[in-house]
Design goal:
Dna Ligase, domain 1, 446 residues, binds adenosine monophosphate, binds glycine, 4 domains, alpha+beta, 24 strands, 28% helix, Rossmann fold, 12 helices, five-stranded parallel β-sheet, D-amino Acid Aminotransferase, Chain A, domain 1
């Protein structure tokens, strides 16, 4: 779909912003946007228990996919920009539906969101554009899968095609468990019933998340971030949405980042454009740095969570204008996004039972006083307030505690000291987030 550009050089003033979503990512976006130049008010639909603790931020009691209610509230509150946080509404075409109503939206349309919603579609684009990625085979039944597994005689990664909330991937250790994973995938045990299952060459190397803010033609790249997907210390246990992150990841210097831009991000945006897709939002490339160079593990069509919480405090007051410029297809006229040269650390506090069956409804005590001289942000995710305004847990990942310092050791020391001041029953967090960049790690429980 082609989106009309507002006349060049004229960007409307930006006072009121609506963020769509309820997680830690959207809490961080609201916080960063509320501090941006010229912004007076940020609404978050539906938001969470921490939204209204941020100055000039308010929750809007509207579901993420209720187009009519979102549209009415955009008019009522004079919204200048809508920022869509999560992949679900993007892949259902929320951005298209709002644009049709004349609303300025940061986030790709349904066409562009296929980059995340269909692994097969994304693979096809990568192969046609020469973007490095793992080899893959799409199969329609277990027999087809066994033929491929036997031909290569090695374990293969098994994925379902579609949004599976982080549960759609198995990394088997041997051939038998590869076949079992294929059977499970066809039986719907990966969160969705896979009509087609994808087998992938097993890559190895450190992983890094790269974010490009795109306006359809141009892009701004954020500092590389590293996520920690596994639940337990030492990268053990089940995959989660992400238990912590840090940025900038020193394993990619400016030179490497430029190479990744040339090799992966620019060809992806060009590939989208060649398919008639005017992509105005985030391209999130999940990369593996293999011996043969960086390869794409997955694309997502939105900010990472918790990488977003880690990155936003590093970004300057131009953030709202830059996202608006992306939404308008005018990045070349936008102010430069300034980036603080500090180390940012993020530790996620999850509820007991996360990711399978998180406990909910426990009361939360926060004894953390936010000292203005220390850069600490407590971003809420799975929290809500009851009728008496008491803060309760309401989801798997409850908080992201984010701090910045001159070194990663300093930033993580403050994060872990601060974490002791947050209490809820069954609180669970990894003590080794950022082990790649820290000199000292204590795994002792408090
Ligand atoms: P995805 O949902 O595709 O991001 O995969 C989740 C996680 O599975 C990734 O962050 C990787 O750690 C791992 N993974 C996915 N694909 C591969 C692959 N081809 N080779 C090795 N690990 C992979
Ligand atoms: N942190 C991984 C993701 O947002 O998909």
């Amino acid at each position: 779909m082609s989106i009309p550009n507002k006349s060049d050089h004229v960007r409307p003033t930006i006072k009121n912003i609506l963020v769509i979503g309820r997680g830690g990512r959207e809490n961080a976006l609201a916080w960063g946007l509320s501090k941006s130049k010229g912004v007076e008010k940020v609404l978050v639909a539906p938001g969470n228990g921490g939204t209204e603790s941020i100055a000039n931020c308010l929750c809007l009691d509207v579901a993420e996919t209720n187009v009519e209610a979102i549209n009415q509230n955009c008019k009522l509150h004079d919204i200048d920009l809508v920022v869509i946080g999560a992949e679900g509404p993007l892949s259902e075409g929320l951005a298209d539906k709002l644009r049709q109503k004349g609303i300025i939206v940061f986030g790709p349309g349904k066409d562009g969101a296929q980059l995340e919603a269909s692994k097969e579609w994304a693979k096809k684009l990568m192969n046609e554009e020469g973007i490095p990625t793992a080899k893959h085979w799409a199969v329609k039944n277990t027999e087809e899968a066994i033929a491929i597994i036997e031909k290569f005689n090695t374990p293969l990664v098994v994925k379902v095609d579609g949004l599976a909330g982080g549960k759609g991937v198995a990394i088997p250790e041997n051939i038998d468990s590869t076949i079992k994973a294929v059977e499970d995938a066809f039986l719907g045990k990966f969160g969705i019933a896979g009509e087609r299952v994808i087998l992938e060459e097993m890559l190895s190397g450190p992983e890094v998340s790269i974010f490009a803010l795109c306006d359809g033609n141009e892009m701004v790249i954020l500092p590389p971030a590293q996520d920690h997907k596994r639940l337990k210390e030492g990268d053990q246990g089940p995959n989660t949405g992400g238990m912590g992150a840090y940025a900038p990841a020193p394993l990619i210097d400016d030179n490497e980042l430029q190479k990744i831009k040339d090799l992966i991000l620019i060809p992806t945006l060009k590939g989208l454009k060649n398919r008639g897709i005017d992509y105005r939002g985030v391209i999130y490339a999940g990369l593996m740095l293999t011996n043969e160079g960086p390869k794409v593990i997955e694309f997502n069509c939105r900010f990472g969570d918790p990488e977003c919480q880690t990155l936003i405090p590093l970004l300057g007051i131009e953030l709202a204008e830059v996202l608006q410029a992306c939404a308008l297809g005018q990045l070349k006229n936008s102010p430069k996004l300034s980036i603080r040269k500090e180390c940012s650390a993020c530790v996620v506090a999850a509820a007991e039972g996360y990711p399978e069956a998180p406990r909910k409804g426990d009361s939360i005590k926060i004894n953390l006083e936010l000292d203005p001289n220390i850069s600490i942000q407590l971003f809420h995710a799975g929290t809500e307030r009851n009728k008496s305004n008491q803060l309760l847990t309401s989801g798997g990942r409850v908080f992201s505690l984010v701090t910045q310092g001159a070194s990663f050791d300093q930033a993580f020391a403050i994060a872990y000291e601060s974490m002791k001041k947050i209490e809820f029953k069954g609180i669970n967090y990894r003590r080794d987030i950022g082990y790649q960049v820290r000199k000292t790690i204590s795994l002792e429980s408090d």
